[in-house]
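Continued from yesterday's entry.
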Amino acid sequence: MENFLWYPIEHLPFIVLVLMMVFTIHEFAHAYFAFKFGDDTAHKAGRVTLNPMVHLDLLGSILLLIVGFGWAKPVPVNPSRFKHRRTMSIIVSAAGPVSNLVLGAFGMFIFYILNEFGVLSSSSEGVFMALLTFFYYLITINILLFVFNLIPLPPLDGFRIISDLLPLRIRYKLDQNLHWGMIIFLLIVFIPPLRAVTLDPILGLTDIIFDSLAQFYNSIFTPIKWS
């Protein structure tokens, strides 16, 4: 069975728990800000909630465990209901990725706090490794989703942000060729050579953000060796 999973099978419980958290927070952030800005579409659909079952997509979750790529249920948003359409649309789109970055940074903060108060050093080896594994995935997956979702290709949030920043004339042309962007995205995701070329800089940037956060917390708390 392990050969069919993207992650080590012994880490599966941690992965499932982390994915439930990161997808839920991401989609909730989209729905929450859309509702606060005057669009009740997501609220009527029951998406302004932290209930994971409302946000998770079964096929997207299974594929993420098998091939390392998946998705949650997209949040329905009607930008025409926003008072300041372009600005609020950008904030709603950015809310998902930013929420993942905040959750990743907060997860690292909690782990350093546990270390600072001796919870890690007083734990058994099994408990220590369980905590290390959980927080490592919580932090890295959140940072990875932050970076990945800012890629300016549909259906990612980065495309929506770029689209709302562009003049209407250019945005209209982009919308007319939306299918080509989707095709490029699918090719990158499912063709291994293209995926490898794209994934390398994404992972590189993820490592830079992770290391920067670790250096920041190391300057405040007792340093932690992550690997």
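--- second protein ---
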Amino acid sequence: MFESSSPYSDFVDATFLSIVGISLLVLLGILIAMVFFVVRYSRKRNPHPTNIEGNVPLEIAWTLIPLALFMGMFYLGWEGYRQMSNVPEEAIPIKVTARMWAWTFEYPNGVTTDTLFVPVQAPMKLTLQSLDVNHSLYIPAFRIKKDVIPNRENVLWFKTSAVASYDIACAEYCGLRHAYMYTKVVSQDSAQFEQWYKAISLGQSKPYQALLDSTK
């Protein structure tokens, strides 16, 4: 957890920790105020109730402070959404098809796989479509999740930071074998990826062109 695996994973982690920290401070403040008022205005200390008039500065403070906190959290959420939506022009396009109960990844030359192989440090643009019901492509290590909906195309992008393997899951309950929709993102160095891409292209009788060179 909290390892940088995509261009925006650090920002998502920082946003998560910021909101948790703010929530804990608010909770602590409410608990302290509650205990103070219970003790300060208990029947033992105040046997005869008195009317308390409004306090304009206090009312302004408890309006503006929560507003500032919520607007700050809104900004963090918007900035994260903007980063995830700004797809680089040079990103390699991959068509992702979801169905009960599997993922299919199609490369520009028509090669299809059930595991997503990508070159390290290269931006990847995934166009998502479903053949049946609602699914949701979720890569926990990258902090990304995007719904995959019938008759609609959604887009997400990422770039891996290291040669590694990452889990892909479906985060939308899609039927009896929903739990079977697990696969991997396998990040390879450029030479290894091109070697794999050439071999699988020839194996599936698809035209081969160096994928990394073709995107420059």
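Strands lie at 92-99, 102-106, 112-113, 116-119, 124-130, 135-139, 144-148, 154-158, 165-170, 183-188. The first strand starts at residue 92 and ends at 99. Will compare against the first tomorrow.
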